[in-house]
Amino acid sequence: MYIWPEVATGEFQLRTIDAGGIRTRYIETGFQHGPDADAVVFIHGTGGHLEAFNKNIFHHGQYMRAFALDMIGHGFSSKPDHPYEIRHYVKHLKDFCDAKGMKKIHVHGESLGGWIAAQFAIDHPDRTAKLALNTAGGLNSDPVVLKRVYEVTKKAVAEASMDTVRARLQWLVHNPADIPEDLVALRYKIYTQPGFTHTIENILCLTNMERRMKNILTEATLAKISAPTLIIWTEHDPTGPIEVGKRFQAAIKGSQFHVMNGCAHWPQWEKPEEFNKLHMDFLKS
Question: Is the whole model's pTM more than 0.85, yes or no?
Answer without folding.
Answer: yes
